[in-house]
Fold:
Amino acid sequence: MTNAKTNVATDAGARTITVSRTFAAPRERVFRAFTEPEHLAHWWGPDGWQVETLAHELVPGGVWHFVLRGPDGTESWSKATYQEITPPARLVYSDVFSDREGNTVEGMPVMVVTIDFVERDGKTTVTDTTQFPSEEVLQQVVEMGVAEGITQTWERLAVYLGRE
Structure:
């Protein structure tokens, strides 16, 4: 799926979804938007959803535990565990659905997310590649509407970066 600015591509054989977009902001600013809860609170999640960070430690092995709340009160809890942090160029973390306490929900797959930030002429291209444990899990996520959700999320980021 592609809109005018965000490209979302799936590769079933590689079990990945890759999302890319160029933002009109310097790399350091975009990296902070992805790594600091005070920034994430303004844009993380699709239209109508809000994020609340319960824990955040930006170090290898550190955890970002958060909940997304939908306009109808739906809650989606997640826990990301940072594996690699190379400011302002790269983030790698595992992501899994959790409960309120941060425990992994039994039977839920762990996804590995790699985000690269490349600056050119004052703009930053962000490429997010999410690796799924199987083609079946990838297909389930695609059917849940991930392309639409991530497109809305990154549009919110573009608006937020324009206001900062």
Summary: The first helix runs from residue 27 to 35.
